[in-house]
Design a protein that fits this description.
This is NAD(P)-dependent oxidoreductase. The protein is α/β, with parallel strands linked by helices. The protein has helices at residues 11-22, 54-57, 76-88, 126-140, 184-197; strands at 2-6, 26-31, 43-46, 62-65, 95-99, 145-150, 154-156, 166-168, 181-183, 203-208. It has one domain: NAD(P)-binding Rossmann-like Domain (Rossmann fold, 3-Layer(aba) Sandwich), CATH 3.40.50.720. Helix 4 links the parallel strand 5 and strand 6. The protein is globular, with a radius of gyration of 16 Å. The model has no long low-confidence stretch (mean pLDDT 97).
Length: 212
C-alpha cells in the first residue's frame, strides 16, 4: 500500500514514517525541506501543502496530514484543510487521515462543549485549538474519505513507546491514572494501525496511553 505523509520531517511525522515503514507500507514524504528528514531512504515530494495537486496525490492509497501551522498563522489549519478537501473531492478512492488536536473533543454528552471552550484551557493554545476545530468541522461536512485523529490533551513528544493504547471517539477521556495522556510514539502506532483496521472511516477518534 502506498502512503504519503505531509509534514514527515516534523516530530509526529518522523514517528509516523518510522511506524509505517515498520508495518511494511511504502512511504513517500511530502516536505518543504527534505534535508530535515530523519529517514533519507523514503521517496520525497518537495512541496508545501498549499502547492499540492491532484496529480501529486493520485498514486496514494492513504495520505496522512501531519502539517502544523506556524505560530501566528494558525488559520492555515483551515485554509490547508480546505485545499486538501478540494483535492480529495477528485480522489474518491484515496483516504485522508489528519493528525488533529485535542481541543475539539467534547466534554459533555450533548456534544455542545469542546475542551477548548472550558475555563481551564490554556490561553496560549487557544488559537491553534480553535482553528484546528474549525478545520475538523470542514472535514466533517465534506464527502471525502476522511479520518481525524485527536490526541490526548497531554501529547508527549518525549514519552516512551508502550505499544498499547485505548481508543475513544468524539469525547475527551483519561487513562487508568486519570490523565489525558498519550506519547507521540503510541499515537503514531494507533494511527498507522487504523490504516489497516479501517474502524473510523469518515469519523473522528482519539486515544490515550499509560505513561511508561
Amino acid at each position: 500500500m502506498q502512503i504519503a505523509i505531509i509534514g514527515a520531517a516534523g516530530k509526529v511525522g518522523t514517528l509516523l514514517t518510522a511506524e509505517a515503514l515498520k508495518q511494511d507500507y511504502r512511504v513517500t514524504a511530502i516536505v518543504r525541506h527534505p534535508e530535515n528528514l530523519a529517514n533519507r531512504s523514503v521517496k520525497v515530494i518537495e512541496k508545501s501543502i498549499f502547492d499540492l495537486t491532484v496529480e501529486d496525490l493520485k498514486e496514494f492509497d492513504v495520505v496522512i496530514n501531519a502539517y502544523k501551522a506556524p505560530q501566528g498563522s494558525e488559520t492555515d489549519h483551515i485554509t490547508s484543510t480546505q485545499h486538501l478537501i478540494d483535492l480529495f473531492q477528485q480522489l474518491p478512492k484515496t483516504r485522508l487521515i489528519v493528525v488533529g488536536g485535542a481541543g475539539s473533543l467534547y466534554v459533555d454528552d450533548a456534544k455542545t462543549t469542546r475542551l477548548v471552550d472550558t475555563p481551564d484551557f490554556p490561553e496560549a493554545y487557544k488559537p491553534t485549538a480553535s482553528n484546528m476545530g474549525k478545520a475538523f468541522d470542514l472535514l466533517a461536512a465534506s464527502n471525502i474519505q476522511w479520518t481525524y485523529f485527536s490526541p490526548a490533551a497531554f501529547f508527549d513528544d518525549t514519552g516512551a513507546a508502550t505499544g498499547q493504547y485505548r481508543l475513544g471517539k468524539d469525547h475527551f477521556f483519561t487513562n487508568k491514572a486519570g490523565e489525558s495522556y498519550i506519547s507521540y510514539a503510541d499515537y503514531s502506532k494507533a494511527l498507522i494501525d487504523e490504516i489497516k483496521n479501517q474502524d473510523f472511516i469518515r469519523e473522528r477518534f482519539t486515544a490515550v496511553s499509560e505513561k511508561a
